[in-house]
Amino acid sequence: MSGFGGRAAVAVVLAAVLLFLAWGLAPEAAVFRDAQSQHALLALAALVKLALLLAGALVAFACRDRLDEGNPARPAWALLAAGLFATLAGQLSLAPYQLVSGQSPFPSVGDLYYVLSYPFFIAAFLVFLRAYREAGFPMGSAAERVGIVAGVGVIAVVLAVVILRPVAAGGEDLLERILNVAYPVLDLVLLLPLALLLRIALRLGTSRVGLVWGELLAGFVFLCLSDMLFAYLTALGQQHVDPYLHACYVLAYGLVAGGALQQLRLLKA
Q: Where are the domains of the chain?
C-alpha cells in the first residue's frame, strides 16, 4: 500500500497482529488475564476482520469493474470478490456472539458461508491461471507445472495424514468432526492452484505485478495455515490458541486486501 491511508491501514493490521501475539505469549499478564479484557480483545478481532474482509471484497470487485468485458481475468476477480463476500458473511454471523457475549460458537451458521467461500476461491485461482497463460505470463513448461502440482500434492497428502488423523479420531460431535476435516481438505485443494500462481509471482520478481501477487497470495497461504492449525489444535485439545489464530486471520485478510488494493492502483495507473 502507498500513501497515508495505506500506511495507516498497514500500521493497524501490524498493531493488531502484535497485540494478539502478545496475548498468546503472555496470557497471564494483567492486561490479558481479566475476562473483560479478553472480551474486548475478541470484539476487536471481530471488528478488524470485518473491516479487512469488507475492504478486500469491495476492492476485488472494483478490480473486476476496471477490466474490459472480454478480459479473461475479469471473471476471476468477480469470483475472488464472491469468496471474500462469503467469508465476510461468515464473520458477520459470528460477530454478534463475539461482540455481545465474548463467545465464538463452533459449529455455527457462519461455517456454511466459510465453506461456501472455497469453491469461489478455487475457481478464481483456476481462472487466473488460464487468463495469465493467455496473457503470456511466465507459466513454465508443462513438466514444471506437473512437478509443482505433484510436489504440493505429496506435501498435501502428508499434511492430511498428520492433521486429519487426530481430527477424525476426536471426541467432538459429528458436525464438528466433519467441519474440522472439511476445512483442511479444502485448504489443501486450494493450495494446488495457489502454488502455480505463487510460482508466477516469484518469476515476476520485484516488479509491481510480482509484488501485488506476492502479497495477495501470501494472504491465502496464511488463511490456509490458520484453518489447518485450528482443526489440528482443536482436535488435540490445545487450550488458549485463539490469540494466535486471530493474529493469523488478521494478517491473512490484511494481505489479501492489500494485494487487491495494489492491483486496483495498477489498473488505475
A: 3-268
